[in-house]
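Please predict the structure of the following assembly.
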Amino acid sequence: MSSRPSPAPSVPPSSSSDFDALFDAWMPTVLGWCRRLGGPKVDPEDAAHDVFVVVMRRRHSLRDEAAMNAWLFGITRRVLAQHRRRAWVRRWLPGAPLDSVRADAPDPGERSDAQRTRARVHEAVLALPDRYREVLVLCDLEERETAEVASILGVPFDTVKTRRRRGRQRLARALRDLAPEARS
Amino acid sequence: MTPSDPHLDELLGDLADHTGPDDLALARLRRRLRPVRSRASLSPPRTPLWVHGATLAAAAAAALLLVQFLWRGPPGEHPLSSTRTATWQASPHVALSYSGEGVWRAGRHAAELQWDLGRLDVDVVPNQGVQLMVRTTEATVNVVGTHFVVERGPLGTLVTVDRGEVELACTGGAWHSLTDGHRRCPRSPQELHAHAVDLVVGEADPADVLEAVDLGLAGAPDRPLTYELLALRASALAQLGRTEELRQTLRRYLDGGPPMRAEAFEAWLNQLDADATPSPPP
């Protein structure tokens, strides 16, 4: 797995000249969160853009620089929730498409087996309740330490471990048919 | 303890590899954020804490003022009707004593008393910010802080000030300050004429008839009503034995009055001129 972001700057930028440093350090992380946590109705790039707009507007309110990870994750979580709500509202507006399909998404018929398997896994991860999905993404996809995940989510260490265990159990059950023994 | 599942780890690893950020997406985002970045460079410095404190204090003061403003209570109506003298404390600074009919209307900022008939004593504590207006058909009294009486009878509204000061405006007239004494706002000439006729029919004291007629004439009635009032005046003066005034009234009537009574009044005037003693009216 190679999705772990590079170390973040310890001090949030205070001028536009530092924007690039902020972008380089944190945008990959934010975009990854948006892709893995957003769900099918959310455009991850739009969401990541909105997260950064909030970050730039409110960066002065961040007092504890060590809490940048948690602060950023909180913003991302709220922005994703907003986008999901908007997507839900758009369904009822006249003229809105019934379902949002990304233009660059491959035709399902042309997908390879690996792509289909990946899509199944992603759907299964997105189908998990928020509390399990967040822990799985941070621990298993981004390979963060349990203590760091506890700090980002603002929950106790043991809670992270419990959620991770239950999330993996649920995911394994959901993907039972993909297991090697099931295939054979 | 997290259950170990190599196959699940493999699936999640593959997902992580293919859902991570890619350079193309990052480049697109960097371009999209460029205009926002230039605006963000002008973001203001952190607001000092005392500014928040001052804002909170101002908001609290505004809320307090608003509550005080609204706490004066909703507008209300209170009918006043009594054949005997009754008293009522309309507000902490306004006491009423009345026999007659009217309506007290209290608004959020001012009170108004519509007085229809009878006597009304109003006692207002001065310098308490009381805004009260007493209205009758003929008069409007703006209370400054005083004790005064409003009497509305057949002849009109009589305002008497015992203490303090009121501002009084008869209907259609200008405001006058009234400190001591009294001032009357008469009813309309039509109403006074009708009242005088009622008095004559009821064989009332001719002095009362004369008072009503004179008030009616002072109200600048139109020509037909003027001559009707003059005829009533002549009748009342004859009964009172006031010959000289009777002569003047008859002459005034004959100066352009309608021919219906002119002949009789002329004969009456000639007779008065002939002998000094007045005779009964024709």
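Chain A touches chain B through 46 residues (CB under 8 Å). The two ends of chain A are 27 Å apart (CA to CA).
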